[in-house]
Amino acid sequence: MDTIPFNRPPITGREIDYLKHVIDSGNLAGDGPYTQKCHAWLASQLGSPHALLTHSCTGALEIAALLCDIQPGDEVIMPSFTFVSTANAFVLRGATCVFVDIRADTLNLDETLIEAAITDKTRAIVPVHYAGVGCDMDTINAIAARHGLKVLEDAAQGLGATWRGQALGTLGDFGALSFHGTKNIVAGEGGALLVRDDAHAEHAEILREKGTDRSRFLRGDVDKYTWQDVGSSYLPSELTAAFLLAQLEDSQAITARRLAAWQRYRDALLPLEAAGKLRLQAIPEEARHNGHIFSLVLDSEAQRTRVLQALREQSIQATSHYVSLHASPAGLRHGRASGALSVTEHVSSAQVRLPVYADITESDQARVIATLCSAL
Ligand SMILES: *Cc1c(COP(=O)(O)O)cnc(C)c1O
């Protein structure tokens, strides 16, 4: 029986041509022509005023935390049901994470609980668009405006998805995308920072290039570049950008195939949800998602263990995540929970993620569904 992997990156075939072009050019470092093409693609296709490639979404979140001017003792509101990078970016600046529960339907930050978590130390809200399903950005942006807070969207999983027709990552002050090998559109390791206003974008360019104005120099705006501010090296090489450009150019087709696979699971499992056997992720009317994750939530951790075991016995690589940040060793030191995080704790203990990728076959999906149904 062939193994059904959890994930397989979508390779378009053009990556190798673009990589060869970079190798032949001899210019391997960052911010060359392929990086510029990726910037232009992201800006035009996502409708973002400014887009900067980074070596990871983690790097993009770190730049954004610097742009938010986070100081030791500041507080940042985020879900506990997320990847560690969401929190690390701010903890590196000395901030405390204030964890808010997620909604049981969308698995996104519960916008009705945000205001109760705000104190006079709060500086930013970080909505994480789980599985590429948009958070309620209307409510979150309104709360942020009322309290003078920055909004940084962790849109690591959000490329190709929208909220009310606007690309995820472009609705807040900043957005961070990931092109990690496990995401929909990949570069091995890679990410991007989307920035709304011009002053922040100019500052971001400096932070990303070791604190120098090398970007201005490359554009010919200044005749030498100098150390302007604290910063680090967040840019990817041209090899990464070349690989990524091939992926971005095919991203609509890749997303469409993922969505088709996602929908096949959905259609097959809706009757089980109606029978109360599991809970599927709800997609709000305003959200167009990208099929990044197929998530289902069971009744208990024991049931989850049985289901994952049954899938494993059929050589199906299913998985789960996240170990809640508020209950993790570093989360206990660097964060606190705002109120009870009961949905987070339940989902974190009873969720199953099914294999989903652009070229998963219908027969493999049928095997996953049959195994799942017989294990429930
Ligand atoms: C993948 C992911 C990240 C980190 O992305 P990298 O590109 O690997 O740094 C951050 N946040 C979320 C929600 C993610 O899923």
UniProtKB/TrEMBL annotation:
The keyword GTP-binding does not apply. SUPFAM superfamilies: PLP-dependent transferases (SSF53383). Gene3D superfamilies: Aspartate Aminotransferase, domain 1 (3.90.1150.10), Type I PLP-dependent aspartate aminotransferase-like (Major domain) (3.40.640.10). One of its GO terms (biological process) is polysaccharide biosynthetic process. InterPro entries: DegT/StrS_aminotransferase, PyrdxlP-dep_Trfase, PyrdxlP-dep_Trfase_major, PyrdxlP-dep_Trfase_small, WecE-like. The active site is at residue 183. Pfam families: DegT_DnrJ_EryC1. It comes from the Bacteria. The modification N6-(pyridoxal phosphate)lysine is found at residue 183. GO terms for molecular function: dTDP-4-amino-4,6-dideoxygalactose transaminase activity; pyridoxal phosphate binding. Keywords: Pyridoxal phosphate. The keyword Ribonucleoprotein does not apply. Belongs to the DegT/DnrJ/EryC1 family. PANTHER family: DTDP-4-AMINO-4,6-DIDEOXYGALACTOSE TRANSAMINASE, TRANSAMINASE. This is Lipopolysaccharide biosynthesis protein RffA.
